[in-house]
């Protein structure tokens, strides 16, 4: 019993990663996949989570075997310019998707019946965004040791998310046998190759988005910084394995719960998955089935998950920008805090502008997608480059299976990036 409690207390760094990955985008795509395909594509989210685990484990290992941070090592070996490029790419990714997180927080509150939609005053969403961003900024500057309160907050958020979604999962009474069959790989329409094809139809595009939101190289990259913030060293490498597994179980578990709930409640009904454009749409579809109170519990999970992703996403971007340019290695450094606030304010400004003008933040999301073209493969390649340094021998040596998993992850990331390039070219050409 004491050993179990010790393990639970040690879990934390990967929970931070899980919190940012289990955001509104991942929640929406998991639910839409269940509504479209039923249980048959559960294997996709499990496979994506396995790839994510491989990257997180490798990143955690690198975090304890090197004396410097990851971008600090890149700067020392390849030059400050390369480190700054990687940090800036990730910052741009974060800012673009932070705009989406701002919009998602408003959408999550809509599920509670608040007048935040297009039929209400545009000043209400603006007030919400100002309040949420102000709270996050206050937290960032309030604590000198930011890691501990952030970890505690996110552990609570993850608990709320899991418990909230479990309520509707139980009420939906999913087919357990069908869930188990869904773990056996089966192709979507058009074959397995369509999963990474830029010419996929709308339904397969949802699957592609599910993989992209579950397998977050940016989140995995930050795991090395989390374990350093925890004060772990080479003697704690085993803790990193356990922690990474716990984080992935949360990430994959939430996605499986959401997909199975939607499969049981929405698949094969007259609900058109194309109408599920944000997380509040999913909550509204569940209300006639589960009742108002159960839907409010579900919406609580949506808001909690959205807020967790909202906070950590900006922190990752700020830390990477600061470390890349050499003015902050940890989340406690002033440079990191200033860069994080910059990410928050830029994204909030764009989101508020979109709200006031009644337009969708397509441009910001397009910038984020364009940034991933260079950013995410660069992050995956950086992890592999550092993992294969010849001086990593003995206790510091990276196990071969980690290198294999990370290499596979790099291939998938590169293919997803190629898909993004082709889609962006088609968008601009049109």
How helical, in percent, are the residues? Answer: over 70%
Question: How big a fraction of the residues is strand?
Answer: under 5%
Measured between the Cα atoms of the first and last residue, the distance is: 62 Å
Secondary structure tally: strands = 0
Notes on the structure:
With 430 residues, this protein is mainly alpha-helical. The chain has a single domain, classed as Hydantoin permease, CATH 1.10.4160. Helices cover 77% and strands 0% of the residues. The protein has 17 helices and no strands. Helix 6 packs across helix 16, helix 7 packs antiparallel against helix 15 and helix 8 runs antiparallel to helix 14. The longest helix has 34 residues. The chain is globular and about 60 Å long.
List the helices and strands and how they pair.
Layout: H1 2-10, H2 13-21, H3 24-37, H4 42-65, H5 70-78, H6 80-110, H7 123-142, H8 147-172, H9 176-181, H10 202-214, H11 217-229, H12 237-265, H13 279-290, H14 292-325, H15 334-357, H16 362-387, H17 400-429
Helix pairs in contact: 2-8, 2-11, 2-12, 2-14, 3-10, 3-12, 4-10, 4-11, 4-12, 4-16, 4-17, 5-6, 6-14, 6-15, 6-16, 7-15, 8-12, 8-14, 13-14, 14-15, 16-17
